[in-house]
Amino acid sequence: MDTLYDRQNDPRAVIEADRAHVWHHLAQHKPFEPGPHALDPRIMVEGHGLRVWDITGKEYLDSVSGGVWTTNIGYGRERVANAVRDSILKLCFWAGAQGTIPGALYAERLIEKMPGLSRVYYANSGSEANEKAWKMVRQISHKHHGGRKSKILYRDRDYHGTTLAALSAGGQQERNAMYGPFAPGFVQVPHCLEYRAGELAGEGYGERAAAQIEEVILREGPDTIGALCLEPITAGGGIIVPPQGYWERVQELCRRYDILLHIDEVVCGFGRTGTWFGYQQYGLQPDIVTMAKGVASGYAAISACVTTEAVFDQFKDDTDRLGYFRDISTFGGCTAGPAAALEVLAITEEENLLANSTRMGAYLSSQLQTLMSRHPAIGEVRGLGLFQGAELVADPTTREPLPEKQVQAIVADCLAQGVIIGASNRSMPGFNNTLLFAPALIATEGDIDQIVNAVDGAIGRVVG
Hints:
The chain is of the alpha/beta class. 38% of the residues lie in helices and 15% in strands.
């Protein structure tokens, strides 16, 4: 029987094995069907820094950190791989009902970056971390509020994962389409995209957007709502930076109505916006924070649900045989995740990547702003740190969104140039019109220039 090592140097064999047997994420496979016009699935084989190579040898500059905003420290970090190797050779796994050395030490280091929080619950994906948070909220409701305070509020355009419960809290209609019926008890609040707010702007719009959340709270009844779950900056929904005054008001609403504030940092965490976590840009003190992606920068699977001691304490009652958090994540017990995460955190500190994210993010924003002055199709540039978006419009006056087909043609043009960019797609009907940029936090001005030059040429060719 052939082994991986027998066949990995045969590109055609790998491509055909993929074509015949792999079901890719978020992909329509009809174009891969055998025939005279069949496309080959793209197989990525190697990465160093911000560069990756496919199986044909073509080189790309990756401006989306692994396609889904994950490889924050870039590719090819030998010290992370060695840490994972050493950890799994010593002890690859132990169920999370007990501890491990990497798990204990990483939790300690992580909490150092999160003043006001104290407890780390390990899992293996962002969707799962969010599920843990909602289960905590529901159990608190049953144990302390007679089961009444169980609703979870979530925001239009935000995304919290791909499980059925996560889709129940998903504000992207096209991602949710055909997967219902959904779990009850999840209630949507309006988005806070200032660019689509009409005449209101700045703090006035921030106040209004937060007031719309309060309207939902009062309509549903504060005593029925357990948590408000929000991304600090809406990610796949269009890189939406909340308006001035919004977050301060949201924090105040949660405190007034005794609602737990759950911040989903799966995308924004670990320096993406220029601070360790996106919520720290706004001086927030959340009750629950979930994270994945950048935790181990893609070198191992790991996620975490982090809480305050006050949340944790509500599960400490040995007089109630069902009072503890009765949950498990099998692969939350793998030691590879926290071992990798310890090295990623150390690299982020040693190389001062938060500062680089801030500095290079400002440079990326300024270069995109320059493009906007040349291309009327760019309606707005927005973001924080190395997390930037450019909303594309067919008409800058009416702000009519550029059709999704043209947006994807720009992405394809950049790909042909050897630059991988992202774009919102098949998520919000009529509003899949934002280009997305999240290069690794090691990005240089030269990398940014290459990204922006590719976008410049692509918009010129596709839109004119």
